[in-house]
Write a structure and sequence with these properties.
disordered C terminus; 5% strand; single chain; Preprotein translocase SecY subunit; mainly alpha; globular; 445 residues; two-stranded antiparallel sheet
C-alpha cells in the first residue's frame, strides 16, 4: 500500500497519534527556552558556540543526547542519562546471570529492568549535572550577582532541576511510545538534531549571500543526499541464511519441509559503535582543555586530522565486534534450530552450525564496521577544505546524526504503513462479520 499524507489524516486513530506525537515533541522543545535558576539568559546565548574545542565537544554530546549542554536550560542534559542507563543494563543483562533471568521473565521482568533503569538514570543525572555546573556554568558573567554567596545551595537546586528535566523528558518519551507513533526516545533525539537545521544552514551565509556560500551549500546537500541513500541501503541490507525444516512423517501424512531464511543485518550493531567511540574520544578533549595541553586538543578537539580518524576508526571496529558478540549468541541460535527440527543445508546441526553462524557474522561485522567508519570520519574529510561550518558537520554530516535520523525515519514510515494496513484489515473483518451474520440469519429463515 502506498503511504500518503492524505490517507494518514483520513483515519481518526492515526491522525490522533500523529497529533499527540507532535504535541509532546512541542512540549519537549519548549523546555529549552526555560533557563536554569540564577543564569543570565542573555549572556548564555552570547557564549553559546564560542567555547572552541569544548564547544565542539558540547555539540557532539548534544547530538547523542537530544539536549543542549551549553544553553544552561532545564532540558540541558537531554536523554543521555537514560540512554546510558539503558545501555548499562542491556550489557549487564548479558553478563550477569541474575539480571538475565529477570529479563527472560516476560513483561514482569521487563518492568523490573525498566525500574532499575529509571533509578540508575537519577544517579547518572546527578553526576552529569555536577559537570554542567562546573563546565557550562563555570563563568562569572553567566551567573547573576549573589549566586556565588550561596553556591552550595545553588548547586543542589541546579542538580535537582536538571534531574527533574531529564526525568520529564523520559516520561514524554514513554508517552510518545505508548500513545504516539514510533519510539519516543528516538524521536526526541531526532527532534533535537532537526531543531538545529535552520541555524546550521544559516551559518553558510554568515558572510553574506555570496556565490561561494551557495556553492558550498549545494555541495553539502549533494554529499548529504548520497550519504543518506547509502545509509538507507546499509540499514536494510541483510545476509539471508537458508533454513530447511526437517520432514516428519505422522501416519500417512508428511509435515515440515518448508524453507525459511535466517536474516542477519549487515549493520548489526547499529549506531552504538559510533556512540561509544565518540564518548571515548571526548576524554582526550576534556583532558586537553582542562590541563591546557594544546597538542592534545589540536589532535582530537577539532575532530580532524590523522590521529583522530585512526583512533575513531579503530574504536568503531572494536565496539562493532564487542556489541555484536554481546548481542549475538551463535550457540543459542544453533541449539534453538536443532530443537525446532531445522538445519542449514550442507551444515550439520549443533556445533558446526554455531561455527558457521559465527564465521558468517564475523565477515558481516567487518563490512558493517567499515561502513560505519567511513560514515563517522566523513565530517573530518569534508571539513579539510574549511568551507563547511563546524555546526553543519557536527549535526548533519556526523555518522551519529545521519544514522539516528535515517533509522528513526525508516522506523516511523514502517509504523505508519503498518497502522494503515491494520486499519484496512479491521475494516475488512467488520464487513465480513456483517455479511456472515446476514447469511446465517437468512439460512435460519
Amino acid at each position: 500500500m502506498n503511504l500518503s499524507i492524505a490517507n494518514l489524516f483520513k483515519v481518526p486513530e492515526i491522525r490522533s497519534k500523529i497529533l499527540i506525537t507532535l504535541g509532546l515533541l512541542l512540549v519537549y522543545r519548549i523546555g529549552f527556552f526555560i533557563p536554569l535558576p540564577g543564569v543570565n539568559w542573555v549572556e548564555a546565548q552570547k557564549q553559546m558556540g564560542s567555547q572552541g574545542g569544548v564547544g565542539q565537544l558540547f555539540g557532539m554530546m548534544n547530538v547523542l543526547t537530544g539536549g543542549s549542554l551549553q544553553s544552561a536550560t532545564l532540558f540541558s542534559l537531554g536523554v543521555m542519562p537514560y540512554i546510558s542507563a539503558s545501555i548499562i543494563f542491556s550489557l549487564l543483562a548479558k553478563a550477569l546471570p541474575g539480571l538475565e533471568r529477570i529479563s527472560k521473565e516476560g513483561a514482569s521482568g521487563q518492568r523490573k529492568i525498566n525500574q532499575y533503569t529509571r533509578l540508575a538514570t537519577v544517579g547518572i543525572c546527578l553526576i552529569q549535572s555536577w559537570f554542567v555546573i562546573f563546565g557550562a556554568l563555570d563563568s562569572d558573567n553567566l551567573l547573576y550577582v549573589g549566586v556565588k554567596e550561596w553556591f552550595g545551595l545553588y548547586c543542589v537546586v541546579v542538580m535537582v532541576a536538571l534531574t527533574a528535566g531529564t526525568m520529564f523528558i523520559m516520561w514524554l518519551g514513554e508517552q510518545i511510545t505508548e500513545h504516539g507513533i514510533g519510539n519516543g526516545i528516538s524521536l526526541i533525539i531526532m527532534a533535537g538534531i532537526i531543531s538545529n537545521l535552520y541555524p546550521a544552514l544559516g551559518s553558510y551565509f554568515s558572510g553574506g549571500w555570496t556565490t561561494e556560500a551557495w556553492q558550498s551549500l549545494l555541495l553539502f546537500g549533494g554529499a548529504w543526499g548520497v550519504t543518506v541513500v547509502a545509509v538507507v541501503y546499509m540499514q536494510k541490507a541483510q545476509r539471508r541464511i537458508p533454513i530447511q525444516q526437517a520432514k516428519q512423517a505422522r501416519g500417512k501424512r508428511v509435515y515440515g519441509g518448508q524453507k525459511h531464511f535466517l536474516p542477519f543485518k549487515v549493520n548489526q550493531a547499529g549506531v552504538m559503535p559510533i556512540i561509544f567511540g565518540s564518548a571515548l574520544l571526548m576524554i582526550p578533549v576534556m583532558i586537553g582543555s582542562g590541563l591546557h595541553l594544546t597538542w592534545l586538543d589540536q589532535a582530537f578537539g577539532g575532530q580532524r586530522g590523522f590521529w583522530y580518524v585512526l583512533s575513531f576508526s579503530a574504536l568503531i571496529f572494536f565496539f562493532s565486534f564487542f556489541w555484536t558478540s554481546m548481542m549475538f549468541q551463535p550457540n543459542e541460535i544453533a541449539k534453538n534450530l536443532q530443537e525446532g527440527g531445522s538445519f542449514i543445508p550442507g551444515i550439520r546441526p549443533g556445533k558446526p552450525t554455531a561455527e558457521f553462524l559465527e564465521g558468517t557474522m564475523i565477515r558481516i561485522t567487518i563490512a558493517g564496521a567499515a561502513f560505519l567508519s567511513v560514515i563517522a570520519v566523513m565530517p573530518s574529510l569534508l571539513g579539510r577544505g574549511g568551507n563547511t561550518p563546524n555546526q553543519v558537520l557536527i549535526y548533519f554530516m556526523s555518522g551519529t546524526s545521519i544514522l539516528i535520523v535515517v533509522g528513526v525515519a525508516l522506523d516511523m514510515v514502517e509504523k505508519l504503513n503498518s497502522l494503515l494496513v491494520m486499519r484496512n484489515y479491521d475494516g475488512f473483518m467488520a464487513e465480513t462479520g456483517e455479511a456472515a451474520s446476514a447469511t446465517s440469519g437468512w439460512g435460519r429463515r
